[in-house]
Structure formats: C-alpha cells, structure tokens
Design brief:
Layout (H helix, E strand, L loop, with lengths): L13 E3 L4 E3 L10 E5 L4 H12 L3 E5 L5 H8 L3 E3 L13 E4 L8 H8 L4 E3 H9 L3 E6 L4 H14 L5 E8 L5 E4 L5 E5 L12 E6 L13 H12 L7 E4 L4 H10 L2 E4 L13 H17 L3 H8 L10 E6 L3 E6 L4 H14 L5 E5 L4 H6 L1 H5 L7 E4 L16 H12 L2 E4 L3 H12 L5 E5 L5 H7 L3
Parallel strand pairs: 3-4, 3-6, 4-5, 6-7, 8-11, 8-12, 9-11, 12-13, 13-14, 16-20, 17-18, 17-20, 18-19
Antiparallel strand pairs: 1-2, 9-10, 15-16
C-alpha cells in the first residue's frame, strides 16, 4: 500500500468506538466447499470468487466473454468457462452463486435447479460471507466505490487488517477489488438495486446520498428512499449512520431509521490528490468513520491526503497526440456526470473538455431524461455513441437518440454530436473534434472504457 503506516492501538485486542467497544471475534469457516459462480467476471462476483478461493475453497465459474477480471481469476487458480449452457455446473457443487444479470430460466440456473444445488444471488452470498464480521457498509446512489476505496486506505494504514469487497479496482488492494483480512472488520459496498443490500448485516453504515436511481425496479422516489430506510434499520439498535446532515434526503432517511446519526458536515473537508467537491465530501464520511473507530483524526487526514483515485473514477488513462489527456469515468447518472465534469473543470482550468458519453440502459435514460439533458453544461463538446442496452430483455421503450442529442444541446448549451457506435465516435474524435491540449473524457458504465484504451493505444 502507499502512504505512511499508522498503528491505531498496537497493544489492544479491541477496536475502541467512542460510543461502545467492539471486541475482535474469531472468524471460522467450513473449508473444502465447491462453489460455482455464474457470471464470475462481474465486479462483485469476481471479488466474492477470489475471496472464497483465498479461504481454501474450490471455485469455478462462467461468463459470456473473457476480460481482465476473468484473466486475473484464472491466474489465482480459478477455472473460468465461456459457455453458459449448463454443461460446466458440477453435479457435486456445494453452492451455486449467480450474478444479478443472469435471468431466471437461464441454462445454468436450470441445471443447478435440476441438480438440487443450493442457489444464492451474489448479494445473498455476500451477506452470508460477511455475517460473522463487523460489517462497515457504504451505501448511497453515488460515490460508494470511491468511499470504500478511501476507507480501505485508512483502515490499512491504521493496521486494522480489514477484509474488503468493492465495486472497482483499488490501488491500495494491489489493483484488485477484494482483500481477505485477518481481523473481523469487513468493509464492503452495499448496492441498493433490487434491495440487494437487505441481505447484509451492517454494524456501521456510511450513507453518501439518496438521489434516486434504478427506476426499472423502484416504483418511485418514495419507494427508493424506503429501501434505504429499511436497510438502515438493519443496524443494531446502537448502530451508527455516518452521513451528511446538511443533505435533506440523507438526513430524512437517517432520521426515519431511528438509528444514531454521525453528522460529518461538522468535520473538515479532507485534502485529496483527486479533484472534486463530491470526492472531498465522500472523504468526510471516511473521516467520520475514523472517529467512530477511534482512529486518530490526524492519521486519517494524512492517509486521505495520499488518496489518488481508483479504476474508472476520473482515471487518467494516458496521453494521446503529445498533450491530449484521456480520462475514463464510470459516471452514468446525471448527478455523477455533473459532479465529475465540475471536478475536471477544477483540475484542468482553461482546457477544452470533450466528453463521449454512453448512456447505460434505455430505462434509466428515459426516466431521468430531463436531468440528463441539462447535465453537460461544463463540457465543450459531447458525443453520444448510442445506448448501452444492458437489460434489453427487460426494456420495452427505446430512447430516440437523435432527439436526445438535440435536447442535450439545448439543455446544456453545448455542442453535441451523434455517433452510431464507439468506432464512429473514435473516428469523429480523431478527424473532426479533438484539438491540441484538449481533455477527453469517456464516460459510462458499459463498453465505453474500451474507447479510452484505444485512444491511448492500450
């Protein structure tokens, strides 16, 4: 890991909370299970698979295509198959875990059902895996992965030896999305989609924001908010919600849960090596977590000062043409787009900002349409290369992309171009759009990251 090493309590067997004492507990597991993971290349399930392999279990699984994630799993001794026809599911598997993306009725799930194998979704499995630990869960519409990454850095620097599962690759975790620690602290990212986080058993919660998303599942903002209220209620009666008291939605959700609130807006905004007010506010949550865990605040601030970001979060991929900076970002919600572009304006003042944004799903784009079309005012030029249709089997309404392009131009008062594909977007960039000293941002949760790699020759 980078940065200094700090010892929180070198001679203590306990983690001292200002509010209570959590004694470290021994964690034991049944060894020797055979676990099959369908959709093993996904960010969450790949971390779970690697963690279980590190515990000594036999892990294997499948995915649609090879990727950097599946290659890394194979290097760790995990067999990965690229046919999902059910033929690779072992008859004597102890557990069948499936990605949320794997629909009911798929060949592998049917095969597991025929074999009468115990089945769990990824979050059910994560809930079981972490249940014996003191779970530090980060939830919210945006900023979960970055906040977990910062918190991991702080806990490691404090020698608290946590286990970690996060939705991105993290420098402090050797470029991976997981870590198996020896203490009973388990830091993880808690996703609200389909109320998945309700399978977790948190001890402390960090709540970043509650903007509203996933309206292909949630019926309304009220339904979305209630999912968070119910999750916060899963804290023990003396559990703590670490959040921003000045954020009305966070404050409302936290108050409705009836749990104790730690308002981090009373704390200073930490200095980071990555730009953006939203990142500093996420760091405030980690500073609050440090207070809850009894880590010296000076140590936490020193650790955070070295935080330089993580994979696909304003990640600088390289330079093209000598002076065009290429940045890749996971942002796929209007609030994320605004925050990221504002941060990049802060980091690169006076430079043209060219954005290639790949909307993630027709449903999200349609339901947040008015917010999307006004989200790009900080960009000089925007290219839309079509919609990433991640849930095509569920979606019935489609975005009128030409009209979307026109509406963004009007709503954000910027130049917007349409492209039929990532390949056409690349051609536009190289032949018509990019100028010396520009900043190019590829943005979205789909295959857009491939374009960033091609632009820098990676």
């Amino acid at each position: 890991m980078t940065g200094g090493t700090f010892s929180a309590r070198p001679d203590s067997e306990e983690i001292m909370f200002p509010f209570r004492v959590f004694p470290l507990l021994p964690v034991s597991y049944n060894r020797g299970m055979v676990i099959y993971c369908a959709g093993i290349g996904g960010m969450g399930l790949s971390a779970y698979a690697a963690y279980r392999r590190a515990q000594g279990h036999t892990v294997l699984g499948s995915d649609r295509t090879a990727s950097s994630m599946t290659e890394d799993l194979q290097k760790q001794g995990i067999d990965v198959f690229f046919e999902q026809d059910g033929s690779h599911v072992p008859a004597k598997a102890d557990l069948f875990i499936s990605s949320e993306a794997l629909p009911d009725g798929s060949p592998e799930r049917e095969r597991a059902r025929a074999l009468r194998l115990p089945q769990q979704t990824y979050f059910q499995a994560l809930g079981e895996l972490s249940r014996e630990h003191r779970v530090l869960a980060v939830c919210g519409t945006h900023g979960k992965s970055s906040t977990v990454a910062m918190a991991a850095r702080v806990l490691l620097a404090a020698d608290l030896d946590p286990s970690v599962i996060v939705g991105t690759k993290v420098r402090e975790l050797d470029g991976r999305n997981w870590r198996k620690g020896e203490s009973d602290l388990f830091l993880l990212e808690a996703c609200e989609y389909r109320r998945s986080f309700h399978f977790l058993s948190p001890s402390v919660l960090l709540l970043t924001n509650v903007d509203g998303d996933h309206f292909d599942y949630f019926h309304s903002q009220e339904d979305y908010d209630q999912a968070f209220v119910d999750f916060l209620k899963k804290l023990p009666p003396d559990g703590i919600v670490v959040t921003h008291g000045s954020d009305p939605q966070c404050a409302s959700v936290a108050e409705r849960s009836g749990r104790e609130i730690f308002d981090v807006d009373t704390l200073p905004l930490p200095t980071l090596q990555t730009p953006g007010e939203h990142m500093r506010r996420n760091a405030q949550l980690v500073l609050g977590l440090g207070d809850v865990l009894g880590i010296d605040r000076t140590q936490v601030l020193a650790s955070l000062a070295g935080y330089a970001g993580c994979w696909r979060r304003m990640e600088v991929r390289g330079v093209m043409g000598g002076d065009i900076c290429v940045i890749d970002d996971y942002g796929h919600h209007p609030s994320e787009i605004r925050a990221t572009l504002s941060a990049l304006r802060e980091a690169y003042p006076g430079r043209r900002l060219v954005v290639v944004f790949q909307p993630h799903t027709h449903d999200r784009t349609l339901k947040l349409y008015d917010s999307f079309v006004t989200a790009f005012s900080a960009a000089d030029t925007v290219i839309i290369p079509g919609i990433y249709d991640a849930r095509g089997h569920l979606e019935t309404k489609k975005v009128d992309v030409p009209a979307f392009v026109v509406d963004i131009a009007k709503g954000s008062h910027t130049q917007v171009l349409a492209a039929s594909s990532l390949q056409e977007a690349e051609e536009l960039l190289r032949t018509r759009v990019l100028r010396p000293h520009d900043v190019l941002v590829t943005m979205g949760a789909g295959t857009i990251t491939e374009l960033a790699g091609r632009m820098v020759g990676a």
